Fold these 2 entries.
Entry 1:
Amino acid sequence: MKWNKVKKSKSIIAAIIGLFIIFIPIVGSTVSAQENADTFNWTRENVSNLTINDKNTAPTFNKDELVKLSSDYYIWDAWPLQDLNGHPAVVNGFKIIFALSVQKDVLPGKRHDLAQIQYFYSNDGKSWESGGPVFKAGEALGSRQWAGSSIVNKDGKLQIFYTATGQKNEAGLSYDQRLATATADVRTTNTGVSFKNWSKHQIILEADGKYYQTKEQTGNEESSYAFRDPYFFQDPKTGEQYLLFEANTAGKLADRPYNNEFIGSEEFRQNHVTPESSKAFNGSIGIAKATNKDLSKFELLPPLLEANYVNDELERPSVIVKGNSYYLFAKTHTEKFASGLDAPEGLYGFTSDSLFGGYQPLNDSGLVIANPTDNPYQAYSWMVMPNGTVTSFVNYVNVDGKDMYEVGKQSPEYQMEHFGGMLAPSLKISITRDTTKVLHEKQQGVFK
Ligand code: FRU
C-alpha cells in the first residue's frame, strides 16, 4: 500500500470496485487476482502479542563441536538447489547447496562488502564437498553477489537468481540492489559436480518507486535499503511462477504520513505509543510474476506484506504450501524492529489460503523461531523446507550480553572468535494451521 491517505483511498477503491462490478459483465474484461491484491500489514499490535517460550526457542548449540563447510571461507545464507516444487533437487545422486562466502581473513561484519556465491555438493545430503565459486571470475553482475535461489528449470538446467549488489568495477562501495539470473548445464562425474555453458547474466528486476522503494527514494535517515534476496516459487494451485524478494515500501520518508492505520486496532492504538521514529521502518516482502517460460521476464506486483512502523528488513523471504495454505517466512534482526517493539532475532511467518492477501501472523505475533535468550545471535537466516526442516548458519555465539553494535566494536580477534560462518544444526518444526512448534534439532547440514 502506498503512503497516501488510507481511509480516503479505501472509499475511492470501494467506489472503483463498485464500478468494476457493474461494468465487467458489459465490457467482458476480468480483474486478475493480483490487481485485487490485498497487501497484508504486519502491525505493531501483532508484534506486541509476542512471547518467547519453549515452542519457539531454538536449543543452544556448541559452535566448537560443529563441522565447518569450508576451512578457508566463512559461509552464510545457504540455500539448496530446488525442483520446481521447492523440494531439494537430486541430480544424478548429488544434492547441491549454495551459500554466500568470504575469505576467513575478512572481518565477519565486513563480509557483505565482498560476498560471492560458492556451491557445495553431497551424495549423502549431510556432508558437503566444496565446488568453489559458482560463477567464473568477472561474469556475475554487481560488485558483489548477495543471497538468491537456485532451481532446476524446465530445460533441466541450473537457473540461479541472485542479488547483484553495487556496480561492477565501482570506485566506491555502493548499495544498489537488483535481481539477476543466469543458467548453466549441471555436469556430474563419479566424484563431483560442475556447471558449464553459462548463459549471459541479466538483470531481471529493479525497484520501481511505485510499489518498491528505489535507492534514490531512500534518505539518510533510513538505516537500511533493500531490493534483494530473490526466491523462486511456483504456485501449485495455479502453476504460475514468481519471485519473492525483500524490499521497502516505496516513497520518501518526508512524504510519509504519521498514520495510525497500519499500527493496529483502535483499542491497541489508544493504549500504545508509537514513536515518530518508527516512520522510517518500511520493510516489505515483494513479489513479481514470471511473464515468460524462460524466467527472464517478470512483472512487479504489489507487495505480499508490509511492515510499516514495525520492521525495516524482512530478509530472504520464502513461501511453502501445506494442504490448502501458503506459509510465508522471512527472517529479521532484533535491531531492525522499530523502537517501542521488543522482538528477538528470528524467523517470522504468516499464513493464508491465498498467495495474495488474507495473511495471519503465525502464533499470533509472527514469531516462529527465536534464538535462545542467553545466546540471542546464535544463528540467522533460517530457511524452511517443505517438510518442516529449517536450516540456518552460525552467527555470533557467547557474546555475554553485548548487542550487535557492541560486538562490532570489539577487537578483530574477538569478532572472529565468536562468529561461526558455517551451517548451524538444522531444526525440525511442526506447522499446524496457524501455529508452529520447534520440535528438535537435526544434524548440521541436513536440508531435508
Ligand atoms: C542476510 C543478508 C541477506 C543478504 C546477505 C548479504 O544474512 O543480509 O539479506 O542477501 O545477508 O550478505
Note: Residues 76-77, 100, 112, 115, 146-147, 163, 228-229, 246, 315-316, 380-381 surround beta-D-fructofuranose (CB under 6 Å).
Entry 2:
Amino acid sequence: MTKKGVLYIVATPIGNLEDISLRAIGVLQSVDFIAAEDTRHSQKLLAHLGIKNTLISLHDYNERSQSGELLEKITQGASLALISDAGTPLISDPGYVLVQMAHVQGIRVVPIPGACALIAALSASGLPTDRFVFEGFLPEKPNARRKALEHLKLETRTLIFYEAPHRILESLRALVEILGGEREATLARELTKTFETIRFGTLAELLGWVENDVNQTRGEIVLLVKGAKAPDKTELTAESLHILKILMTELSLKDAVGLTAKMTGIQKQLLYKSGLDLSKS
Ligand code: SAM
C-alpha cells in the first residue's frame, strides 16, 4: 500500500518578508506542491525565497471541490503545503474544509507556525492577554454589526477584530456607541511594515485620532478592545436579591442560594447571609 503524504499548514509573513521560519522554507522547498489562495501573490514570495515549486489555487469558492482533488494526491503519497496570502492559513483565510477532510481521511496534518496578525497585535497591545476572543471581521451591514457588538458588550475577555481600512471609522463609532468611549483599546496597523503603528487609548481617543488623521484609515488593521469589567462577586446587587427572594418562595434556602449563585456569579456565603435575613423579615 502507498504511504500517504502529509498536509503541512505553513505560516508565511504578514508584511516583513523576513518573518518566515527556516522550517517553513524547508517544507516549501521539499513538498510536491503548494496550495495557495492567490497563486500570483504567492509566486512573489517563493521567488523572494528562491523556491521553485508547483502552485495550485485554493480559494473559498473552490475549496470543497479542490480539497477532494488535493487529498487524493496526498493519499497517493504526495505531500502538500497550504499557505495563504499572509500569515497563518485558516485564520480568516481558506483551508478549514481541507484540514477537516484530511482528518476524516486519516491524513497527517502538520502545522508550521509563524506570523499571525492577531497574535502579533495582541502581544504588543498593552491589553490583557491571558484570555481573549478573536471575532474575525465585524459584519459589514450596520444592523448586523450593532447586533454582534450588543452580543459582545458584557464579554470580559479581550476582544480582537480584523478590520478593513474603509470600515475602521464606522466600526470605531459603533464600538464607542455600544461598548462606551471609556473602554481601553489598541489599534494595530500595518504590523511588521514600514508604517507600522500601534496606538493604545480609550475607544473615544482612538476614534478622535483616526477621524483627524486619514493615514490611520489606510492599510491593514487589527483592533483590540479590553473586555467588560467582570461582575463584582463580593457585592450583592438588587437583581441578585430579587432572584433570591423569588426562589426562596419555592425552594429551600440552600437550593435558592445555590441557584442564585449560579445565575449571578455572586458568592454563596453572601447570598446565604442575606437569605437568612430575608427569611427573618
Ligand atoms: N491569515 C492572516 C493572519 O494570520 O493574520 C489574516 C488574513 S485576513 C484575510 C487579513 C486581515 O488580517 C487584514 O484585513 C487585517 O485585519 C489583518 N492583517 C493582516 N496582516 C496585517 C498586518 N500586517 N497588520 C495589521 N493587520 C493585518
Note: The domain at 118-225 is CATH 3.30.950.10 (Methyltransferase, Cobalt-precorrin-4 Transmethylase; Domain 2).
